Amino acid sequence: MRRFLYAIVAGIVLVAAALFALRLYGDELTRIALVPSTPFEPQAALADNAFSDPAMWFSRPGMGAINDPARWQPAYREGYTAPSRPDTTPPPFAVFFVHPTSYFESSHWNAPLGDDQSQQFAGIFVRGMGSAFNRASEIWAPRYRQATFGSFLDNSDDARLAMDAAYSDIGQAFDYFLLNVDADTPIVLAGHSQGAMHVLRLLRERIAGSELSSRIATVYAIGWPISIEHDLPQLPLPACTKASEGGCIVSWASLADGGDPGMMLRPFAASTAFDGQLRGTGPILCVNPLNGVVGGSAEAVLNLGTLVPSSDLTTGDLVPGAIPAHCREDGMLMIGDPPEMGAHVLPQNNYHVYDIPLFWANLQADVVARVAAWEAAR
């Protein structure tokens, strides 16, 4: 019995020590666990016609609504009524959506396309996030060999090469997208987290200064920080400053009261911005998803519907009027008391995984209004 009690006490001490270490060294321990320890190894180049294979797309025209995760339309939870909104017919537009990171292994710098777990999660993300764009006439969401999560905790050359490799796949998919979308169809670029990073790179490297720039109706770079001082002036489109404004960029990153975005913002501050300088600790872009205003504040009553997911994230219900939104001075989007959204809230009340589901119905309405405004101003 004495030995048993000693063991219990020792266990409590170890747990307390572990929690203390996580509090003091959480970022470093996370980095050790998730950043690959092996050198970057390039994967074989995709075939030139790789994206002509329908299997290389989570979403694309011709799949049918049942098989296309981005065409999913969640219903309002029983007992709730859908808020009234203008019954507008959306103009034709095509969305190129890039899913966020779903690969967390440290065995590779980039996810193999045959990795079943990361592909399954990526499909879930397309269903829960890409579906907010389901009023588009076309939605294209490619598979790609994404950089592993640990790449974003590391400023090494290996991490940069992993991101370059992922972007190469995205660029190839974008080429195929352009070949198959009618030349008169407005384009919406959208992505979350790593996907938003790749979308911004497309905007800078492939679209700025080209004829293609005249077709970009709106850019949604959600869940990826954009430095107002060092990044935004280098982009070919301005921030969206009001609702129903097209030809601009929307971005936000969600945090509940008492939260700490340090794990995301510290590596970001130490990274090189689009102007070649360090991004530093200046404010990031925050376009309030409830009222469309830069730096705006809005009460929960304006929330048309939060997509509250099931425990396995494969389905969910819309709940209106549940979550407010306020852009803090540093650009973080504050959502009030921590809402119950499931088991995937990140440490320190970081709601990064739920950036889009928190405001799903508002985003669905927002993209239609912005494309319509862009069309009217042409």
General description of the model:
The protein is built from six helices and twelve strands. The chain is of the alpha/beta class and 378 residues long. It has one domain (42-81, 89-377). Strands 1-3-2-4-5-6 form a six-stranded mixed β-sheet, with helices on both faces. Strands 7-12-11-8 form a four-stranded mixed β-sheet, with no helix packed on it. It has a two-stranded antiparallel sheet with strand order 9-10. It is globular, with a radius of gyration of 21 Å.
Low-confidence stretches: 1-25
**Proportion of beta-strand residues:** 5-15%
Total number of beta strands: 12
- Average per-residue pLDDT, rounded, comes to 91
Radius of gyration: 21 Å
Structural class: alpha/beta
Order of helices and strands: HEEHEHEHEEEHEEEEEH
**Outline, from the CA principal axes?**
globular
Could you give the order of strands across the largest sheet? 1-3-2-4-5-6
Main attributes?
12 strands; disordered N terminus; 378 residues; alpha/beta; six-stranded mixed β-sheet; globular
Structure described in brief:
This protein is an alpha/beta fold and 378 residues long. It has helices at residues 2-34, 116-128, 157-180, 194-207, 262-269, 360-377, and strands spanning 57-59, 94-98, 138-142, 187-192, 216-222, 248-250, 254-255, 297-298, 306-309, 316-319, 325-327, 333-334.
Q: What is the topological layout?
A:
Blueprint: H1 2-34, E1 57-59, E2 94-98, H2 116-128, E3 138-142, H3 157-180, E4 187-192, H4 194-207, E5 216-222, E6 248-250, E7 254-255, H5 262-269, E8 297-298, E9 306-309, E10 316-319, E11 325-327, E12 333-334, H6 360-377
Parallel strand pairs: 2-3, 2-4, 4-5, 5-6, 7-12
Antiparallel strand pairs: 1-3, 8-11, 9-10, 11-12
